[in-house]
Design goal:
By secondary structure, this protein is of the alpha+beta class. The protein has 5 helices and 6 strands. It is globular and about 35 Å long.
């Protein structure tokens, strides 16, 4: 399976869509354009985590001009509930910290208010809750971690 197809399947997983700030199913053409833009952007990093040869999830980093890098993560349905999300997030953060060209000042994660699993994941990686807010008209928590 191509990485693009794998990423789209993970993005359209019902549990992933339910915790997204844009819960509608993603069409293939929209995804292909989004992915091409992310891969071409010097301000983005998209990493696919592996357990042996098996892809288990993705972690994405998008930098704003001020050095704030938003983190997004999803774990494949068949890899969930095995503690792999923490390893995937930790490895992604380490890789981006080593990548000096990204110019990270602060990592930020925006999580739906009702997403206790993601909140625990980011807390476990050292992120601190800085505020409750509204993200795309949905109540959310905003976590930060200094680079």
């Amino acid at each position: 399976m191509r990485d693009s197809d794998l990423l789209l399947a993970w993005a359209n997983d019902p549990a992933t869509r339910a915790q997204s700030f844009q819960p509608d199913r993603i069409e293939a053409a929209t995804h292909e354009l989004w992915l091409a833009n992310r891969l071409a952007s010097p301000s983005s990093r998209l990493l696919i985590g592996l357990e042996g040869p098996t892809p288990i999830g993705q972690v994405r980093f998008d930098r704003d001009p001020d050095g704030t890098v938003e983190v997004g993560i999803s774990v494949a349905a068949d890899a969930r509930n095995r503690g792999l999300g923490g390893s995937l997030l930790t490895a992604g953060l380490a890789a981006v910290r080593r990548d000096r060209s990204l110019g990270v000042r602060t990592f930020v994660a925006r999580i739906r208010l009702d997403n206790d699993v993601s909140a625990a994941l980011f807390r476990g990686a050292g992120f601190h809750l800085v505020e409750e807010s509204i993200c795309n008209a949905i109540p959310c928590l905003i976590f930060e971690l200094p680079a």
